[in-house]
Amino acid sequence: MRPLCFILMPFGKKTVNDGRMVNFDAVYEELIKPAVLDAKLEPLRADEEITGGIIHKAMFERLVLCEYAIADLTTANANVFYELGIRHSVRPWATQLIYAEGWGQLPFDVKLLRAIPYELGPDGKPIKKEEKSIILTERLKVAMEAKTDSPLFQLLDGYPTPDIARLKTDVFRDRVRYAEDIKAKLYKARQDGVKAVKAVEDELRDISLTDHAVVIDLFLSYRAIESWENMISLVERMALPLAKTVLVREQLGFALNRIGRSNDAEQILKELITERGGSSETYGILGRIYKDRWEKAKECGNTYLAQGLLEKAISTYLKGFEADWRDAYPGVNALTLMEIKTPIDSRQPKLLPVVCYSNERRIAQGESDYWDYATQLELAVLGYNQAVATVALEKALTLIREPWEPESTARNLKLIRRARSERGKTIAWANEAEDILLNQLKTY
Q: In Å, what is the CA distance from 383 to each residue of 131, 327, 349, 411, 424?
């Protein structure tokens, strides 16, 4: 399946200021479409994207999510310029510009942009179209090398690239529309295991030319079945622009840590923080690396190293929560590790209500997932609130998507239980919640 190339242009026949007519359908069919296909991309015109819903939703979705785009600036169409502005504000690269030379004046703001001129005959149809089509094909191929073409990103040093992929990792595959047959196959394959998912990947053949949404679904499918090596291998074969996204780099770090390559994982995440600034997700995964190192040091009896790593993990999780107060995940992990310290970290009583409020606000917004209620459960255990814990557990159990989710929550509850046991405290209902989560794994 080829990556999509979104075509921003008028359709039908349009008249320019001097009365001449441009046949945009002919420009598309005879010049643009052949160029896109020769670049091994799948062309999608804006007017072809009317799909029974609200047209603007589909339009914005493609503007932001399509890997490649072409904008025809002929006649200075207001809609095209508005759409181009949106595209340039969220995509540093992979947007090509074309225009009919001598058929109207380009606005001053775009005169200096690198655009491909093409010629029209008296009938408004393109001439010398093969020559211009070849040039456009080559420009699209260059775009695959992730070279910045957005003037916004070229001129403003440090302008942050919006993380268009990171709505939430666990539900990202459900946010992007892509080939329904592949989506259905991957859904079934996740239930059947690694071989089944690998078989779907084999159908795709060249991953670098596959629709990015499909590749992300495949990537997260390997994560769902804990096939870390396949995740890592997939990144090496992705198109460069996709491999550079925050989501992929974060999850690559996650996978590398899971197979014991924590140094490599740490380096990737630190580079990401240096380039893009810290996010709750990046710091959350980095905190997990230090947390795992703490556990290993503790098992080996290296007390001083363990204490240092515990502090480092707490500090990293706190940075994640402070980076985005709406994301309770790094906050609850910091709180859990604070519980483990001897004595309990003095910051915990102040932080606990803040993280609880953050999580409550997220749940109140609706469309909550497993992690929202798992976090609520963990917070309730930390706060000795049995009533809230019971409700949170019941809701979390109905939202489990992948077996490692309850396993992760049970692991954190186990850490709390052990720390409290060492202090002579036993919370029966919290222990029961841990057992229920572990028993839930048997159903997968």
A: 70, 19, 9, 18, 17
* Residue 1: pLDDT band with limits 50, 70, 90: low
What residue spans define the domains of the chain? 4-155, 168-277
Place of tokens 């709406």: 326
CA distances in angstroms from 391 to 194, 408, 434, listed in the order given: 34, 19, 14
Backbone angles phi, psi at 273, to 5 degrees: -65, -40
Neighbour tally for 305: CB within 10 Å: 15
Contact 408, 384 (CB under 8 A): no
CA–CA–CA angle 229, 235, 268 (5° rounding): 90
**Are the C-beta atoms of 244 and 148 separated by less than 8 Å?**
no
Strands 115-120, 21-23: parallel, antiparallel or unpaired by DSSP? unpaired
What is the C-alpha to C-alpha distance for residues 348 and 73, in angstroms, rounded to an integer? 57
Locate 332 and state its tokens. 């609850």
Strand partners, 5: 43, 68
Q: Is the pTM of this model over 0.70?
A: no
Beta-sheet strands, E only, within 52-184: 68-72, 95-100, 115-120, 126-127
4-8 and 68-72 as β-strands: parallel, antiparallel, unpaired?
Answer: parallel
Strands (E) located in 126-259: 126-127
In this predicted model, what pLDDT tens digit does every residue of 135-173 receive, in sequence order?
999 999 988 887 888 888 888 877 777 665 544 434 333
Q: What is the CATH number of domain 4-155?
A: 3.40.50.10140
